[in-house]
């Protein structure tokens, strides 16, 4: 067990969330306490301003109207939340290039300010600790994507016919206000109006499609809790297909430029999902599918919840990767960005498993190939469980050394214990968050083994571990 890591992570999380002592109210009942401000960030060292303290979001009801020709978005965000401290004011993450026009809290006008990526809301009255409240934010403007510390684009990414909307790690603040750290999951409903020449695709189940006066409103219901970075509202001249295939509701959107290559795309999902369900446990969401856009300038896919987004027709391994993320990343989500290998190492290992199942390459051959990287190579200098900073989030060690770590664990504890560990991880943390220390503890509990040395070498120490 890495107790030190667990403590450090807990300290980062709890520090900014600890409210300052409330103003003394004395004994006079006429003098009311006014609470204290919610923290402006969730305390993640990679993205300190991301997320907010003092409340917990439960549901986002987003009504968005988008005009691709002008790039103008007009939105109403209705957020249900619960105060986790007595709250004098609280923050939401929203870039200031979008203009907030009004804010109400429980139906009363609230005052607000915008600066950087923070919207600060002061309700007319302090919110009591534990109290449920609702916030309504009207806003508009021309959303622009952000550039991440690793140089990739993220958020509301415009394409020739609409928007490629991928939000890992910090793009959500470019198009809707919220508590955007991944530890605050919530259900979502998206009501999106676009010109009828376009389609708007989001997470969850398509519940309505209403054409009216040259525009069409699409309503998507995302009923399982979701982290903001996994939300998507993607827009384009898509071909939309929605059908039941092999027990799954498969909803796909394909850019017509790719229609030929994407023929049969919906049917490719059930076999992969059936296989992963047989080893990881039941598929955690009410629908599946994917968004296949033509976005060569973006270059990366994302495991947007229920419905991954791809910048081209995915290969079999990319499809398996994004579908495996539905268990590892989407249903079970890390607690800090530093623990990103719990997403990428697992999804990469799932690619290896799927290729083995198809007979293309054995898992052992995949491991051997990755392990063959020379000991002097830079690759081995990054420990799996701490890539060092946000600029390295999606670097090879997170993916390949992460997957190798799982294979070494499998060889150490045997297949039965290893697959029991994966199932327990997906089952015990379903719709929640968990960190590396929790994975180590679970591996030791399920296998009944002391695994310090293995995890130390593979997760925490730089250098090529010996076998
Ligand atoms: N999580 C994505 C995947 O592995 C990858 C990803 C998201 C990414 N954002 C990125 C890769 C930015 C490179 C740059 O499927
Ligand atoms: Zn991935």
Question: What is the β-strand count?
Answer: 21
**Fraction of helical residues:** 10-25%
Rg, Cα atoms, Å: 23 Å
Hetero groups bound?
A: tryptophan, zinc ion
Largest sheet: 8 strands, mixed
Structural class by secondary-structure content: alpha+beta
Q: What is the overall pLDDT average?
A: 93
Shape: globular
The number of helical runs is: 9
- Largest sheet: spatial strand order: 6-5-9-3-2-13-16-15
Low-confidence stretches: 1-31
Order of helices and strands: HEEEEEEEEEEEEEEEEEEEHEEHHHHHHH
How would you describe the oligomerization state of the chains in this entry?
A: single chain
Q: Strand portion, in percent? A: 25-35%
Distance, first to last CA? 20 Å
Keywords:
binds tryptophan; 9 helices; 25% helix; binds zinc ion; 29% strand; single chain; 467 residues; alpha+beta; 8-stranded mixed β-sheet; 4-stranded mixed β-sheet
